[in-house]
Amino acid sequence: MEPSTATAALTDDVGFLLSRASGNFVRASNAALLSHGLRVRSYSVLLLACGTEEGISQRDLAAVLGLDPSQVVLLVDELAESGLVERRPSDTDRRTKLVVATPAGRQVRAAAVGDVASAVTGQLTELTATEQFLLRNLLSRLALGAASLPPV
Amino acid sequence: MEPSTATAALTDDVGFLLSRASGNFVRASNAALLSHGLRVRSYSVLLLACGTEEGISQRDLAAVLGLDPSQVVLLVDELAESGLVERRPSDTDRRTKLVVATPAGRQVRAAAVGDVASAVTGQLTELTATEQFLLRNLLSRLALGAASLPPV
DNA sequence: TATTGTTATACTCTATAACTATA
DNA sequence: TATAGTTATAGAGTATAACAATA
Asked: N or C: which end of chain A has fewer CB within 10 A?
């Protein structure tokens, strides 16, 4: 089904399509996370905190997530109040606070990860497995090109 | 450069990549539109208004843009106050208001479209022309799959 | 002097509900 | 009764600036 030429200028625009697609994914993921008491951003912080035993500094969290450090403070506050992560002092740099997942946090993550995966899969049903792989490749180059990820 | 396994769970996630890439595009486009007194959302409304002679109803604007009609009201208000569009009564349905670009609005669009294109192109330099075409195809199926576009 | 985390603030975007006038 | 537009409000996301503690 072809959209009329009047709307083609928009519907052909990569920025517009990215924004729409991203919104769809965020909404679906937030809906899946609702019953776990999380949203996409806090979930991503929890994921990273669960990714290490020693914890990850807030500065590194900000770099990986592409967020300002001040936003990370609020997200970690939220997770800490829920008892899902805790801040530990670094023994090499007393400025640094290492965010580490609690056992409760790891449980919540384990419970949520499948629901999020289902939500994402539901959004991707239009694409074949090959196309999904290709999309991930293309997007990673767009997403991480401007502000590349530091090795954490 | 390989990100560590600790961050792979995130950096492999399509939703995360979409969100990052979308943010990059929105920021770049907003920066390009700043000198024209527009932002991405008002610009997209202006684009659609410029796409027809007769004008486009606010309901159709909302459907094409994937926005709530109440948000469209504010965007059209903003453009109308700047003299870039005007609301005309429909002669077939007195509830409907047709949003049509003024000559000034068409001038602003003409002046801005190149700057936006440059900003988008700058974001896409990582990809070959073939990859850009492919990406557009994949994204359009993701973006418009859930809430498909009505023919306007 | 530079960096980590923090507080504060303002603006944009998103999501809903309720209302009016027309159909 | 349903639809197009409008008003209002609240929450979430984004962007900056300034500060204290530490390096």
From this structure: N
B131 — contact with chain A (CB < 8 Å)? yes
Question: What CATH number is given to the structural domain containing A71?
Answer: 1.10.10.10
Query: Which of A12, A17, A133, A144 is the best substitution to test chain B (most B C-beta atoms within 10 A)?
Result: A17
Establish if B44 belongs to a structural domain.
Answer: yes
Beta-strand pair A97-101/B85-89:
unpaired
Q: Which residue of A has its CA nearest to B13?
A: A136
Q: Which residue range forms the structural domain that includes residue B65? A: 28-140
B58-110 residue pLDDT tens = 999 999 999 999 999 999 999 999 999 999 999 999 999 999 999 999 999 99
Helix, strand, coil: what percent of chain A each, to 5?
65, 10, 30
Question: How many residues comprise chain B?
Answer: 152
Number of domains in chain A: 1
Residue B1 near chain A (CB below 8 Å): yes
> Do the domain assignments include residue A21?
no
Cα–Cα distance for residue pair B5/B3, rounded to 1 Å:
7
Report, in ranges, which bases of strand D sit under 7 Å from a protein C-beta. 3-9, 12-18, 21-23
